[in-house]
Design a protein that fits this description.
Blueprint (H helix, E strand, L loop, with lengths): L5 H7 L1 H12 L18 H16 L3 E5 L3 E6 L5 E7 L17 E3 L2 E3 L7 H16 L7 E7 L7 H9 L5 E4 L2 E2 L2 E5 L1 E10 L9 E8 L5 E2 L2 E8 L4 H14 L2 E7 L2 E7 L3 E2 L9 H9 L6 H12 L14 E2 L3 E2 L1 E10 L3 E10 L5 H14 L3 E3 L7 E2 L5 H14 L5 E4 L11 E3 L2 E2 L13 E3 H19 L1
Helix pairs in contact: 1-11, 2-4, 4-11, 7-8, 10-11
Amino acid sequence: MSSVNWLEEVLKRKDDFISDLQGLLRIKSVLDEENAKEDAPLGQGLKDALQYMLDLGEKDGFTSKNVGNLAGHVEMGEGKELVGILGHVDVVPEGDGWSIDPYGGEVKDGKIYARGSSDDKGPTIAAYYGMKIVDELGLPLSKRVRLIIGTDEESDWRCVDHYFKHEEMPTTGFVPDADFPIIFAEKGISDYDLVQPFQEGKSNAKYEMVSFQSGRRYNMVPDYAKVHLKVDEADTAEIQNYLAYLKEMKFEGDANFVDSELVLTLVGKSAHGAEPRNGKNAGTFLAEYLKTLDLDDAGVKYVDTVSEFHEKSRGEVFGIEYADEESGELTINVGVMSFSKKEGGRIGLNMRYPVTFDIGEGKKKIEATIEEKGLQLENFTDSKPTYVKKDDPLIKTLQKVYEEQTGEKADLLAIGGGTYSRALDKGVAFGAMFPGREDVMHQKDEYAIIEDLFKASAIYAQAIYELAK
């Protein structure tokens, strides 16, 4: 069926495409466990976004299935083998500093703005329209095609864990949640907490650290940090010192005395935790300043621990720097920082390690390092790396499709990000961000270029046909 002009087919449906995407973007589908219910285990917004996609599939004549309000699928075709496409409708929190409604789906200057527009609602709709086009053209298929929709990709993957306990594993597949051309290798991902136990006693320091807070997610560079310092006597010179630090470092922020406490805030720059160097970590920058103050013992210990990671994202703190040819360097993001004088401190780290790294030995070195500092390791999780051999038929098919649709060489990539491809027995990440485009995932004013979404949808349509024909 090389005679099909796949992009032309997408453009015939462009108004419906945008309308359907806007409907999805306008659902605030952020993890909300505080308000979870039995029929909405991760919050109402996530349930609504999942149901939106299932309803869309029903309307367009696909078979749809809700699997425990955690995941679901829409399916077409017949056959024993199953081609799987895994997308997700959950988004990270919108964060601060947007200049546009983060859940508005506003179209402006060829872009559509909203949290999730590029990660991963836009690409998921692009893949859905790829299915829809193949179906509406009545092309003969020998396999089933299933778009699997998850709701917890940005957190703990409870969606796909639950889904694959109850539903079959695809024979092969791809994930529209990363970069083009093709990502054949993904680093392992490990989250863990460094815990500073509560300690009694108070030194004669000028400031007692009451609380420190920065970050919402392990996989995001924090863009905001706040500290409360108890002080016996207000000193306006300290406010001026801090404001001078902000000015020197070119950060927004504030300093005030509130009820015998000095409250300092700092606004950094968020970025995806897979590459901490793309952001400015508000928590570590604030800790750097706090090191200059006369703090109590517990405060000093916590601030020193946080600041050790300041602008060090390659495992240097633990002596586990590592890189390989397949997937690049090990990285560590300081994603969540919290301290309370009543409870102690906690630092949540997100580590991305190369496919040939020995995670067992790495963990031993981490434990040895923090034991010397009187810290504890808690909540250690490990999602193993994944990769598909370069000569696999899946890789060869997707390379052919990408090159035919773009006229560009389909190079194979390795990333530090974790996509649903690691949930598949055999799968790769395939788009939807094109080479050279700005990566605005997890950032304020996130957007997707509409022309790119259409182009991605054409690629997905042909890929679905080639894999399932």
